[in-house]
Structures are given as structure tokens and as C-alpha cells.
Amino acid sequence: MTESPYLPTPQFARWRKAKSSAVTGILVACALAVIAPLFLVIYFLLEKGFSSLDWNFFTQLPKPTGEVGGGMANAIVGSVVLLAMATVFGVPFGIFGGIYLAEYGSDRANNWIRFAADVLNGVPSIVWGMVVYLLLVVPFKGFSAYAGGVALGLMMVPLVMRTTEEVLILVPQSYREAALALGVARWKMIVVIVVRTALKGIATGVIIALARIAGETAPLLFTALGNTFWSHNLKEPISALPLQIFAYGLSPYDDWHRQAWAGALVLMALIIVLNVTVRVLSRDRSKTD
Amino acid sequence: MPAPGSRGPDIAFKWVAMFAAAMIVVLIVMVGWELYYGSRLAIAKFGAGFLWSSEWDPVLERFGALPFIFGTLVSSLIALLIAVPLGVATALFLTELAPLKMRQPIIIAIEMLAAVPSVIFGLWGIFVLIPWLRDSLFVWLKRFLGFLPLFQGPIYGLSMLAAGIIIAIMILPIVTSISREILRSVPNLQREAAYALGATRWEVLKIAVLSYARRGLFGAAVLGLGRALGETMAVTMVIGNRPQISASLFAPGYTLASVVANEFTEATTDLYQSALFEIGLVLFAVAILVNAAAQVMLKSMSGSGPVKVN
User: Which fold has domain A74-288?
Assistant: First the structure.
């Protein structure tokens, strides 16, 4: 023991206890300080955003610069379109990658792939925007919804891959053996037995990934770009809620600030719904297992 | 019996899966290559001096990354100084102190905090946090700690310190949850042994828990750093976006990620855009290194239970 000798005097015992209680108090205060920002953010979202949520907000296009009124209908639809495209581009890679890790890969290869996925998860999202700009915007000579969808989709790949692997590993080995013993081809065994059993878990992983990318702004700045009108074609720039919040939040107009708060409230609500869905789905799973 | 020729689909399926998994590794290489490709003009023109030059003048086409590297490091450092003690303390509270019924709600609240998008933090930062900082905390810091160069100079609100605080809030969830995992992996035997020696609660935490988990907690901090370096939107909205190196934390700054976010679509010349790609390359390289280091640290922690007697 490197500390000074613990003398068993009453004063010293009291001092030690007091110190311990003080630390307990500090820890409680820290925990409160950590969750306080969540409540502050939600409080101000409701206070500043709720009053601006009206029919116009959900049905109208943004008004020209400086004019009062208008809404974010195109941004809300744009966000949904981008998320759907990201799912189409990113999820198949994620799921097949997860299948490889759980069903085929050697330990050594798997370790490297997992490591790469975890590192890729930490790549700043703005970097994805730059890379997709070079890959899709420059060659096709224009910002497009496709580019935005691909940027978000790429961000989904490592997330979906890791969660898919985790749930596939939970499927009991005896299921696989039983299927193979009946003469089922391996790929059919994987699709019909393993993936089928873990389907709910895989879906949960996809929703977790969607919740994480739904609020991403940085990868869309130079891919989807944003648009103040409806996009009728996926080859055109498209608006998204986070982009619109960013643009309006930094604008000098009070009415746009008001709408930025309303947009932020809608975005936050969407993300909360996704998170609650994840909770409900995973609660069911832990019950049945 | 499988019909003859049914190996075909089997092999094809395996190859598709293998291709998807290999994509991950290919992606890392591809991102690095694309960024390098995009920045080759700037690399050829400025060489290594790019990293040391503090001049950023799009009009004269003279570009240096130092103000942005400085801004990224300082804002991330402020964030770590705030988030690591708070995060570890909260993790301690959650694993060691909190009544079982209280744990789940707090954990859910922290997960929700992690789910708040960067741009919403930015909006909140501009309209709620910054006015408060400008009128209260910064004034207070200036009055009581104004003798330090860190807290001198005019207060604008938009500042390096505001960015650091926003990043701290954003990395708190990940630092807390990884720290919690680490603390949960400390064997109960450790705690029981310390209690059996008559240690108070704080002494148990200090002697048995924290010293045991030190390495893992360091890994959690490094992972937090990795996230902090790349935070873009919220930082762009509150840091003030001025490429300068100033001793005062009240002064505006600029980071690697936010200069790209702000200026990329305005970069009219090839060299300007190329310089921004090089900024992205620097950011990517640092993020990869920091994240890889964090993964290695956390992995070495979670495997064996190193009981160190010193």
C-alpha cells in the first residue's frame, strides 16, 4: 500500500467517511450534468419549434429569401427519399458482409474486417461527402440525390455489418447442423434458416443505422446539395431536413430561425421514433430467446 | 441428396458475401486514395510546408493548414478535458452507486443524447448556449481567471471555447458508455477485497476499480478524441470560422472539418479545392490513426484481466 498508514483514530475514520460522501455527491452531480443537455435541447426544441408547426410547414415549399411563411415539405420528403436510397445502397453490403463474418470467414480475416469496420465507423462524416463528390458528382457533372444517397449508404455499411454479424452468431449452431443434415445447400441454409431466424435482429440493426444517419448533414453538403423546390428527378439536387435546418439556422432572418427550430423538432421526433422502434423490437427479442 | 451442379449457387453466394466483407477494407483504401487524388495539385504545389504554413488566402491562392490543425486540436482538447472526467464519473455512478432502478432511465437518456444530430446541437448552440456563455460563463471566467492569457481579449460568443463545450456534450455519450463497459469488466472480487480491508466507498473506487480500469478508460478517452476531431456541423456553427491562431479561448477559430464544410462549395479554383481535399486527407489520416489506436487499446483491455500488483 503506497498510501500513508491508516491510523484507526476516530477523527481519521470520520475524515475518510466524509471524503467518501463528498465523492458520492460529486459523482451524482456529474451524472446530472451529463444528462442535463438532453433535457435542455428537448426543452428548447419544444419551446421554439412547436408553435411553428402548422399545416403550412408540412405542405409548403420554402419562400424566396426574406419572405415570411412557407414550409419544409420538400425537405421532409427529401430526407425520406435519401434515407430510402441509403438503405437500398448500403444495407445489402452490410448484410452480406455480416453473413460472411458469421458464416464463412476465418478468424484472422474476420479480425481484420471487424477492425476495419470499427475504424471506418470513426471516419468523420464530412470525409464521405468529399469522396462521393469525387466519385459521383464530378464525373456526372452535377449534385444529385443519388450522390447523397450513396454517401449516407456508405456510412451505413459498417454499422449494419457489425450488428448483422452479432445477431447471426446468436443463432444456435444446431439449427445449421440440422439443415445441413437434411441435405440443404449451404447458401439455402443460411438464407432460409439462419437469416430467417435472426431477421428481427437484422432489421433492428438497420433501424439503428438509419437513426444514426437521419440527422447527418456534412455528407450531404456537397452531394445532395439541397434544393428550395421539389426534386422531380433523382439526378437533380435534393433537399433534406438537416440541410434546411443548417441553412435557415445560419440565415439572418427571424422567420427562418423559427422554421429551423420547427424543422429540428420534426427531425428529432423522427429520430426518437426510430429509437423507440429499436427498443420495442429488441425487447421482444430478448423475451422470446 | 443435393442435385448435381448445386455447388454453383453455393460458391456464388459465398463470393457475394466475401465481396461485401472485402468492401470494408477496400473502402478505407479507396477513401484514402480519392482524398489523395483530389489533393495532388496542392501537394505538388505546397509540399510538406502545407502543414506548417498558417496563411490561408484564397484570393492569392496561398494555403496552409496550421490554423485548422491548431483549431481542431485545441477544440478537441477542451472537449476531452470536460468530457473525460464527467463521463468517467457518470460511468462510476452508474456501475457502482446508482440504485438498480435508476440506472436504466439514465442510460436511456445518455443514449438519446447520442442520437441528437450534430446540426441540432449547432442550432441550440447558436441560439441558447452561445448567448448564455457570452453573458454569464465567459464574463465570469474573464473576471476570475482573466490573468491567464487563455481568458483574455474581447468576448464575441462564437469562439474556440464554445466549440469545445459543444463537442464535449457530443462526445459525452460515447465516453460514458465505453467507460461503463470497462468498469463493468472489473471483477467484483477486486471490490470485495477492498471492502474487506475496511475501505470506504471512495477508497474502493480509487484502489480497486479505477486503478484496475485505467488502461481501458484511457482507450475510451482516445475513442472520444477520435469523434471530437471529426465533429463538423455543430462546430462550424459555433466556432466563428476565422483562420487564426490565438492564445485566447474567447477568440473565434476554425477546424479542419469546418473549413471543408464551409468553403468546399465556394472553392472556385482547382488549387483552392485541392487544398481543401488535402485538409480532408489530413483529417482522415488523423481520424484513422486515433481510432485504430483506440480499438487496439480497448481490445487489449477487454481480453485478459490484468491484475497488476504495484
Answer: MetI-like fold (1.10.3720)
